[in-house]
């Protein structure tokens, strides 16, 4: 019996693929540019080719493949619905069926943030619990909600968009059409923009040094370093970002009372600087019941949550997603 | 086989009790003042006495009793935890066990807003669906969340506090300790206060007439009538309230994508005046997926949602609350 599974994390920039055992230990991996401008068929062919190379290289035939996709997918048919960061030809592409036919093993698709949520659930802090709320803080802000051991997907497999809660009703315009979404104040670009503002206004001397005045080097990583190394205003910017995330977390806790909230994605690597104000705000803003039992943690899987999520989806997806239960193949 | 069930809606002011068939048709009912200052034992004795009178009057022995309680309860033990509107002696009172012993049939306790949610699910708009988000808009704002046919309660049976989402981060102080909660801008008192402001500032001439200048007559009902009969500023106040509720609803839809949102409680009886801006705001503020399939409705049960919720809890509670499944009696 094969206990090897395959994963692909399909991003706007890179395709990251791996084979791993059911316990999450990676046997082989590969990363290539997505080149999404070449269109879906070229990208699908590239993913198939990468899989074949990994199988050949590791001499393991995977039992199934899980793919995290940047957008909305129909989990029951394995088709893409809408991928905002990829060209529009990606609407209604039967990625699952095409790849199954080519590869000869089952293929499962899921939104990338929800895939990362499954990764954290199966291989990270979620291992011992049945409820988990996951925020992916990156270029965008996504999420996933697991309640009583089930990933909440809703009728369009689109639920879990925690980055598009309104946290500031009169706030900034969001790419989704709304204004004041968490994403407008808690994404990587939002933090970089605030870093740029502080740098240009002379309020971030350490950040200025670290970046040599080059604004393209103002990232969550350099902003975090500047805060730790003395830039008080940069530190306050991170704290403010944490309070926004804390408001979104508090709203979810008041509504659903999950026992565990995990922050993932590149921005979460700010660590304690970010987590501390998130925790404080969450505890302060849930007034209706005690929240001592609600943990707020940084992802145990770091930047591998998505990749390991694909393994979790392939190996144990049906446990968390009842729609996958009866699924044998798409055709 | 008895198909008659009993219900009590325990409020800070009144106890409302009923017997009904499993289809929700009421056989007999009774209302008496709570007189909570007399303490829990007197109130429990009153509830037992009311039940006995209803049973005698209708000549039906109920199979079980469901009680909606204004605060937090432990559903597995039938004890009260914290009832903010009743005196503090109500902490950890074994209401379920005491009433079972006296009455001889099973007794189930649940928070009143969650009880109303079950009522709507079993006897109202929720009959044909498996997901329902219910807002109770009254003196306070409460709620209930049913996903995939399960009432979400969480580890302290306290989840569902939809009135305590932060909708305005710099907003008014809330009795729960937070600020800017939905309850501060969408409760009966919040609407009455805005009506009073408009009346006193000369911006609500029709409301002034309707109330004869008596501020104690400024209620959701008179405010709604004034809006319908020409007070433009009063109408705008209701619309503004609807947009706040719409923001809270949009946040829940982005996170969970339920197919149905129901507004209950006295304030919901404003009807279309309130529902229309709630709908518009919800659709406008969910940008990540289409919401054409998400319905927003006024409770089908009106002011009987709580009372019929008790019947739903007694008759079918275990379907929605797995913790009630193994429960035979508390002792």
Please explain how this structure is put together.
The structure is a homodimer of 331-residue chains. With 331 residues, chain A is of the alpha/beta class. The first copy, chain A, has 2 domains: 4-117 and 304-324, ATPase, nucleotide binding domain (Nucleotidyltransferase, domain 5, 2-Layer Sandwich); 128-299, ATPase, nucleotide binding domain (Nucleotidyltransferase, domain 5), CATH 3.30.420.40. Helices cover 39% and strands 19% of the residues of chain A. Chain A contains 10 helices and 12 strands. Chain A has helices spanning 40-58, 95-103, 112-123, 182-186, 188-200, 205-211, 220-228, 232-256, 272-285, 305-320, and strands at 4-10, 14-21, 26-33, 65-69, 72-74, 79-82, 107-111, 132-137, 141-147, 150-151, 260-264, 295-298. In chain A, the strands form 3 sheets. In chain A, strands 3-2-1-4-7 form a 5-stranded mixed beta sheet, with helices on both faces. In chain A, α9 (272-285) links the parallel β11 and β12 (295-298). Chain A is globular, with a radius of gyration of 20 Å.
Low-confidence stretches of chain A: none
Mean pLDDT of chain A: 95
Indicate the CATH topology of the largest domain in chain A: Nucleotidyltransferase, domain 5
Major sheet of chain A? 5 strands, mixed
Kindly report the spatial arrangement of strands forming the biggest sheet of chain A: 3-2-1-4-7
Q: Would you identify the CATH H-level superfamily of the largest domain in chain A?
A: ATPase, nucleotide binding domain
What best-fitting shape of chain A do the alpha-carbon axes yield? globular
How large is the share of residues in beta strands of chain A?
15-25%
Biggest chain pair interface: A-B, 47 and 46 residues
Helical content of chain A stands at: 25-40%
User: Count the strands of chain A?
Assistant: 12
């Amino acid at each position: 019996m094969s206990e090897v599974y395959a994963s692909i994390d399909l991003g706007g920039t890179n395709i990251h693929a791996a084979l791993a055992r059911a316990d999450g230990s990676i046997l082989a991996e590969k990363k290539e540019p997505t080149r999404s401008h070449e269109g879906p068929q070229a990208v699908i062919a590239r993913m198939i080719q990468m899989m074949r190379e990994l199988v050949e290289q590791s001499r393991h035939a995977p039992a199934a493949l899980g793919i995290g996709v940047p957008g909305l997918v129909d989990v029951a048919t394995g088709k893409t619905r809408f991928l905002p960061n990829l060209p529009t030809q990606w609407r209604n592409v039967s990625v699952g069926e095409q790849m199954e036919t080519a590869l000869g093993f089952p293929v499962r698709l899921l939104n990338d943030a929800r895939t990362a949520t499954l990764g954290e659930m199966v291989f990270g802090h979620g291992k011992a619990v049945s409820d988990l709320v996951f925020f992916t803080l990156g270029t965008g802000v996504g999420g996933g909600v697991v309640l009583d051991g089930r990933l909440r997907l809703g009728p369009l497999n689109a639920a879990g968009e925690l980055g598009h809660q309104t946290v500031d009703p009169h706030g900034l315009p969001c790419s989704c059409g709304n204004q004041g979404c968490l994403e407008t104040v808690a994404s990587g670009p939002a933090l970089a923009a605030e870093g740029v503002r502080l740098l240009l206004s002379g309020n971030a001397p350490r950040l200025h040094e670290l970046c040599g005045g080059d604004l393209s080097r103002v990232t969550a990583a350099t902003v975090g370093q500047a805060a730790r190394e003395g830039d008080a205003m940069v530190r306050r910017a991170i704290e403010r970002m944490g309070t926004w995330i804390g408001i979104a977390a508090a709203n979810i806790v008041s509504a659903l009372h999950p026992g565990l909230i995990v922050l993932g994605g590149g921005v979460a690597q700010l660590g304690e600087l970010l987590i501390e104000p998130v925790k404080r705000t969450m505890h302060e803003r849930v007034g209706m019941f005690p929240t001592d039992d609600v943990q707020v943690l940084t992802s145990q899987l770091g930047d591998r949550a998505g990749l390991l999520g694909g393994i979790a989806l392939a190996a144990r997806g049906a446990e968390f997603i009842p729609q996958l239960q009866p699924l044998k193949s798409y055709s």
